[in-house]
Design brief:
Order of helices and strands: HEHEEEEHEHHEEHEEEHEEHEHEHEEHHH
Oligomer: single chain
Largest sheet: 7 strands, antiparallel
Distance between the termini: 26 Å
Structural class: alpha+beta
Strand content: 15-25%
CATH topology of the domain at 186-401: Vanillyl-alcohol Oxidase, Chain A, domain 3
Bound molecules: flavin-adenine dinucleotide
Helix content: 25-40%
Number of helices: 13
Radius of gyration: 21 Å
CATH class of the domain at 186-401: Alpha Beta
Shape: globular
Length: 427
């Protein structure tokens, strides 16, 4: 039971906390913090357990698990939601979509709202509506001294600033309050799978299409292994391909008109253009990264998608190491870029695209090879990056606080020191 309880999504993380507390509500979290303060035990917090670096669990620490605190209350008139900090995106999408509303967030239904929000929150709705933190109205937080405070625009506004992307080092958030947008329940989407021979052309098309399209369009470009299932052609099973997965955040008819050129590009292995329930689209990546697989990530923000970047990536990406690997390009820009870089702890408001190299495999014997491949590809592509990175994609062997926060780092550290003076949560 203890061995199951200490597991997180990344099967490479093998840490042994001193205690694991499954909290049912704020009072339990206060009791944990009081215990930690009295005994001098460091605290880690687990939302969805999806941090690739395994930041939710540490040797000899008290693990505060929030997975039982997952209720979501939607106010359809006010278009807001109060979300328990242990909720995952699947729960949030399910509850908000019942009212034709959505919270901009991640693209995997199992990821925790807690960690994702505290780092920023990038997904299909980022370009149309903004980051998750741009929709965060307030939060209930248990501080290191056991006090419960509300962080909002008019009280503890410095704490709210830090929670908007700062990584959750100031206390335990027990509930988040968000502003919602109207969406769905059906959205138009397209998925186009191109063989490697068309990947360079496909990425150039992707770049030009994104530059010309409305902000309602969001598209991820991913190198993946072709899934061994019909309707993919059998001879392509397991081969590396470029998948372009796009959705439109407006009406289904507008979406069809705007996404049609995408679906008709090249000679794909498979191309789909059809309406889909937004919540279904949101869980369509889940199976590609199963719980307990072995994972190692590298990431960086890009200086646009230059021809040199495309050429180098296409040249080096194939073959991917392991069945659960992908290399993805995710779009920002649009509504994300209309927020001042100093308005939240997340400073990357001027980048258009992020790159993630997320390697995943099954066999521990492959660890060395897969990690070396990931590092080498990242090093080859560094010349095309901005030098900055999204904190939620930083793995366990890197300290990239300066790259993740830039000019906002000093303010973030000062707020951390104010709310958590003895470093109970800072790791
Ligand atoms: C398969 C997969 C898909 C992903 N997709 C996306 C995506 O589409 N967009 C995106 O932006 N990111 C994505 N991510 C990255 C994700 O945002 C981070 O991994 C994030 O940390 C996950 O949050 P969590 O609550 O599940 O993680 P956890 O591992 O539980 O926590 C991560 C960190 O946040 C802290 N934390 C969590 N909850 C709280 C809380 N309530 N109070 C204080 N601290 C807290 C933890 O202590 C830890 O340091 C994805 C990750 C995975 C593995």
């Amino acid at each position: 039971m203890y061995d199951d309880a200490r597991k997180v999504w990344n099967g490479m993380i093998d840490r042994r906390p001193a205690l694991i507390a499954y909290c049912e509500g704020t009072a339990d979290v206060i009791a944990c913090v009081d215990y930690a303060q009295t005994t001098g035990t460091p605290v880690t917090v687990r939302g969805g357990g999806h941090s690739v670096a395994g930041r939710a669990v540490a040797d000899d620490a008290l693990l505060v698990d929030l997975s039982h605190m997952r209720s979501v209350q939607v106010d359809p008139q006010g278009k807001t939601a109060r979300v328990g900090a242990g909720a995952t995106w699947g729960v949030v999408d399910h509850e908000t979509q019942a009212f034709g509303l959505a919270l901009t967030g991640g693209v995997d239904s199992r990821t925790g709202v807690g960690g994702l929000t505290l780092g920023g929150g990038v997904g299909f709705l980022a370009r149309p509506f903004g980051l998750t933190i741009d929709h965060l109205l307030g939060a209930e937080v248990v501080l290191a001294d056991g006090r419960v405070v509300n962080a909002a625009e008019d009280e503890h506004s410095d704490l709210l600033w830090a929670l908007r992307g700062g990584g959750g080092n100031c206390g335990v958030v027990t509930a988040f309050e968000y502003r919602l947008d109207e969406l769905g329940p059906e959205v138009m989407h397209t998925q186009v799978f191109l063989p490697m021979g068309q990947a360079a052309e496909g990425l150039s098309f992707y770049r030009d299409f994104m530059a010309a399209s409305s902000e309602s369009v969001s598209c991820f470009a991913l190198f993946i292994n072709v899934p061994p299932v019909e309707p993919f052609p059998e001879e392509s099973f397991g081969e590396t391909c470029l998948a372009l997965v796009a959705m439109h955040a407006g009406s289904v008819d507008e979406g069809e008109a705007e996404l049609k050129p995408f679906a008709e590009f090249g000679s794909p292995l498979l191309s789909v253009l059809e309406p889909i329930p937004y919540a279904t689209l949101q869980s369509s990546f889940d199976t590609g990264a199963p719980d307990g697989g072995r994972y190692y990530w590298k990431a960086q923000y890009l200086n646009g998608l230059t021809d040199g970047f495309i050429e180098t990536l296409v040249d080096r990406v194939d073959p991917l190491p392991g069945a659960f690997s992908n290399v993805f390009i995710e779009p920002l820009g649009g509504a994300v870029s209309r927020v001042d870089p100093t308005a939240t702890a997340f400073p990357h408001r001027d980048v258009e695209f992020g790159l993630g190299i997320s390697s995943g495999w099954e066999d521990a014997a492959e660890d060395g090879k897969a990690i070396a491949w990931t590092r080498a590809l990242h090093d080859d592509l560094l010349q095309f990056g901005t030098g900055s990175v999204y904190i939620n994609y930083v793995d366990r062997d890197e300290d990239r606080a300066t790259d993740a926060y830039g000019a906002n780092l000093r303010r973030l550290e000062a707020i951390g020191a104010k709310y958590d003076p003895h470093g109970m949560f800072r790791r």
